[in-house]
Amino acid sequence: MTELELVQKAIDDKIGKDIVTLKLDSAVADYFVIATANAPNHAQSIIDEVEKVCDENGFEILGKEGYSEGNWILLDLNDIIVHVFTEEARSFYDIERLWN
């Protein structure tokens, strides 16, 4: 499996909802993977699983933001940026519309 597929599977395994992958034409990253969590602790659990998969497969994690609050957690994997939101935060920020 590719890095992207492993990240998507890790999110799905932790029951992330409404998983969307955006292919970017940007120097920021190649992909955004966006998912919704039921609550901040669910978002943290999803990110924990993605980090575990990255560690197991030797994928570099460049940064993580928003983990302690859990409403919008960003995990930077260089070519892939993972965004896990609570439903309210995802609706408010609507990054799919901004980046699509």
Verbal overview:
This is Ribosomal silencing factor RsfS. Its main location: cytoplasm. Belongs to the Iojap/RsfS family. This protein has a five-stranded mixed sheet with strand order 1-2-5-4-3. Helices cover 41% and strands 29% of the residues. It has one domain: 2-Layer Sandwich (Beta Polymerase, domain 2), CATH 3.30.460. The protein is α+β, with helices and mostly antiparallel strands and 100 residues long. It has helices at 3-13, 40-57, 87-93, 95-99, and strands spanning 17-23, 31-37, 63-65, 72-76, 80-86. It has four helices and five strands; from the N terminus they run αββαβββαα.
Which residues form runs of ≥5 with pLDDT under 50?
none
Number of DSSP-assigned strands: 5
**Biggest beta-sheet profile:** 5 strands, mixed
CATH-scheme architecture: 2-Layer Sandwich
Q: What is the CATH C level class, in words? A: Alpha Beta
Which radius of gyration do the C-alpha atoms yield?
A: 12 Å
Q: What's the SSE pattern?
A: HEEHEEEHH
Subunit structure: Interacts with ribosomal protein uL14 (rplN).
InterPro entries: Iojap/RsfS/C7orf30 (IPR004394), NT_sf (IPR043519)
Subcellular location: Cytoplasm
GO molecular function: ribosomal large subunit binding
